[in-house]
Amino acid sequence: MTAVFLAPGAGGGPDHPTLQLLRQELDVPVHLHDFEYHRAGRRAAPRADRVVPEFSSAVEEYATDLGVTTREIVVGGRSYGGRVASMAVAGGLEVAGLILLSYPLHPPSRPEALRTGHFPDIEVPTLFVSGDRDEFGSPGEFREAALLLGGPAEFVWLEGGRHNPSNRAQKAGIVAAVREFLSRLGETPDGRGPRG
Description:
Elements: E1 3-7, H1 17-25, E2 30-32, H2 36-39, H3 48-66, E3 73-78, H4 80-90, E4 97-101, E5 126-131, H5 139-146, E6 153-158, H6 168-185
Parallel strand pairs: 1-2, 1-3, 3-4, 4-5, 5-6
């Protein structure tokens, strides 16, 4: 595992404090993507599946710039950005692992509208980090959804955190969780972590 590539939530950009903190605190290069719609000044995010090609192309370009393959990069993002990353991986983007921060498992107050249809096609090690009071998915709902994944998953719950964990302890928890996940990925020869 060589580097990390992260995308922001629907309403923000690469200047999000959590993403900036990860770029500062992790021991590997971290690239923060800015979606084209955001760069163009549009507030409304397109449907996630519509920006998957953009995301995949940007990861491939980043890998080329680094002189590595995409299999040496961990991808992910916060909320919408994580959903896009997960769909790209499910669609065939080969990466070392997946980091999903505040993954929007379902819209608030609509637990039946699960965003898990692509989960069986995610075969890489996946880290979920969410607040334990996130209205987009509870710990119990995530435990059930994890059974659909095609690869190993681990969960870190931030005590008292909602969809945008923001206090000092929650931010420290995010950094620690991601750092430990990356460390474990780096322990295997192919950088893809344990299976099963």
